[in-house]
Amino acid sequence: MTAQHRATATGTGRSLARSRPRYGEQAIKVVLMLAALVSVATTVGIVFALAEPTIEFFSEVSLAQFFGSTEWGPLFKPAHFGVWPIIVATLEITLIAIVVAVPLGLAAAIYLSEYASRRVRKIFKPVLEVLAGVPTVVFGFFALTLVTPLLQDVFPWLGLEPKNALSAGLLVGVMIIPIIASMSEDSMAAVPNGLREGSYALGASKMLTSVRVVVPAAFSGIVAAIILAISRAAGETMIVAIAAGFKSVFTLDPTQEMSTMAAFIAQAGSGDASTGSIAYKTIFAVGSLLFLMTFAMNWFSARMVQKYREVYD
Q1: CA-based nearest residue to 179, from 142, 220, 218, 223
Q2: Triad 176, 182, 184: Cα angle to 5°
Q3: Which has the closest alpha carbon to 236: 134, 154, 84, 109?
Q4: pLDDT confidence of residue 98
Q5: Which letter does DSSP use for residue 72 in this model?
Q6: Rounded CA gap, 217 and 203, in Å?
Q7: Which residues lie closer than 8 Å to 117 by C-beta, 6 or more apart?
Q8: How confident is the model over 277-300, as pLDDT tens digits?
Q9: Distance (Å, whole) CA 259 – CA 24
Q10: CB 57 within 8 A of CB 278
Q11: Which class for 195: exposed (0-12), middle (13-18), buried (19 or more C-beta within 10 A)?
Q12: Which residue in 232, 258, 217 sits closest to 92, CA to CA?
């Protein structure tokens, strides 16, 4: 066979290989697409599940009653539907959690990314992420049986109630530290070493390089981590139900017992409200409001990431 014939045969073989259908790759593509659609389908299902009962609720309770009052007690007689007590409690506990989690989480991320050796990072990062797998009911009982008595002994002038927002917020903050630390560390690790080397060449210390160069370069990922942690804290149920209680009081005092939106849903959904009653529909109204709040935070996070994202070659 001449060289020309061999080249022709080789080209024909390659052409047949390219034109031959690859059913395995097509099947994998379909499976991956279905996996991606699961989250979209879940979100759509949640919206449809919440929509009808919420519409029925607001056909009986006006928006003025829902947002214009500070008395909340849909399970009592007479019923009160002013939602602000549980909104304020949710935001208050979330704020306490973020005050705890953001500095500790960022400090852990900076250490793992900039200071820890590869061996230390391989040990401490999985240990930190294991904290995210601790059942939240454990955090709740830890706050109730250890943190609250400890705070009452150390700070007796606070006048902490047995169940209070402060202990709940502290433990929710501990719970979301791995989210902020792990995602922020991943973002910092993606920053090119050339930026660090340029900073060192200008005489900057490691701490100055970390704070002034690496953190700003990873800012979009850090913001996304914080917003995700806020959403997780706002929707936390077991810690706040055990440690903060179910008392619906409109107050900014974190030493008092209070009920969050998620805690109310857990309480009302446990069987206290009969199906089809206005109290039962309140669960869906509060759930819709919480869903919209977390959706708004995630939308804001996506916009911030898009605005401040740094792309490196």
Answers
A1: 223
A2: 100
A3: 134
A4: 94
A5: E
A6: 19
A7: none
A8: 888 888 899 999 998 888 888 787
A9: 52
A10: yes
A11: middle
A12: 258
